[in-house]
Design brief:
single chain, alpha/beta, eight-stranded parallel beta barrel, 40% helix, 13% strand, globular
Length: 574
Amino acid sequence: MKLCKTTLSFGLMALCAAAFAGGSAKPSTSVSTVVPAAWLRAWQQPAMSDRPLQIVHGIKAQRASPSGMKYYKDLGLGGIVCNVAFPHYMQSEEAWKTLIKGVEACRQLGLFVWLYDEKGYPSGAAGGLVLAENRGFEALALAFDQSRSDPFMLRPSYEHTHASNNFAYARRYINLLDARADASFIRHTHDAYWRRLEKYFGATIQAVFTDEPSLMAVNIGQLPKEVRKKVPVVDPLDPKTVALPSVPWVRDLPDLPSVPWVRDLPEQYQQRYHQDLKVQRRSLFEGDTAADRHVRRQFWALVADLVADRYYGQIQAWCGKHHIASSGHTLWEEDILHHVPLDGDKLKVLGRMDIPGMDELSSDPEVVIHGGWMTAGMPCSAAALHGRRRVMTEVSDFSQRMANRSDAALDAMQATAAWQAAWGVTDFRLYYAPARRSASDYRAYCDFVGRLNALLEPATPDPHVLLYYPIYDLWAEYRPVAEPLRLASQPPLVRKIVASFWRLGTALQRSQNPFVMADHELLATAKVGGQRGQAPSLQPVSAAQSSVGRRSQSPLRDGEPVLTIAGHSFTTIV
């Protein structure tokens, strides 16, 4: 359903005003004459598919029935995101029976189900089953120690990484660059759900949710001591490594600059670039020559392709074969500096999700509106530039609760939802705690999200501004560091690129200019004047060279299409 901008804008304003004034009240005659009848029906009774889903880590036995699951339906939810219970993860038949009963109850009630793919997070470990199968599947880093005669060493990516510094478990992690490890994760997790729940796939079960997978080879900082003591430790932090077959492990584990690694990376590098990576390794850590920058660009481009294909691609292919969507979100969407070591190219890996997602930890509208544009913009851009509409958010008031503030109020939750929907978010997955709010408030929130989707989800976002995502520039300049990664540790040009990119996106949002982000590869697919790749004047400048409002040096007049990508035409490039 498409309406002109005037009808959409004024109709949405009128209906939102009705929502805040009382929500389900009968629309006035004036509203009825502006908004189509189908929208009014959807507004009064939002479909289950338009409503948010509650994230539930393990269905309780007493809820695994239609009467028990009705609790979620009565709250206004459209379903749940769930997993087999964490105790004896994937191996308890009683837990599987409970899950099956819960999913069947959802089917009977018309509730939808997404499957959460991990015991806690980050996704990939299958609760430790992957590394129990083969310890050689553990995440690897190439570390650099200038104090040694041979400064290079391979070691596990555990100490000093997100694997040992998250709120779920301190647990060793798999190597996302290793196709065998990724296949093992899918076999232990996705195949297990399929064996037991096959008849629900594609109907009740609609997607798989992967949570904060990453390449690990970067120090993201330590958890506060008061938080760390509450985190279960599966794999103790060990000052000594464990010797593994055929791998030259170094014995001590100081914090060192590192990059992600996999057994066949030198071979892949040789095949792609016809060069010996072993000879060029030092350039990954230091050097300011054009040759050094070229090596870094080649390395991170390869890493980005491998993780996109081997982890995200394998999951996407499995989901397609089994009639569901792949979804989830990555780690640290909000900081472009971390995009290099955590993903290679975050826009690329998000593009390998059928429903790319984000993680919104705050429900303070002031925080979200002024500081969250990159968090929302990344998955929304990935969806738009791959011809998709749906975008997922894992949303909560985690930040407020961690700061010992009160739970987010209903109006703040609604404002946060509206801001995300304005960006293009469609699928709301909730970590809000229903027990900490009144049932009427929770229902009002779920109704509000359902109404946003009833109005906006059928529409197609149509931004005309394209913001260059300067990952190509960052590949050349990024330097791995031992300490927690901060902008101050990076070369001046990195700081300039990051600051300029942030300033551009912030200015565009504050000036109410909808935009999407595209990296160099997406720009290379663009049609320019009906041709591809035949307009050198449209090649992107780095973010450090851009300024707000600068238009591409195009022979076209302002207001005419400059680039077309995936059916979207852009008149302004910054």
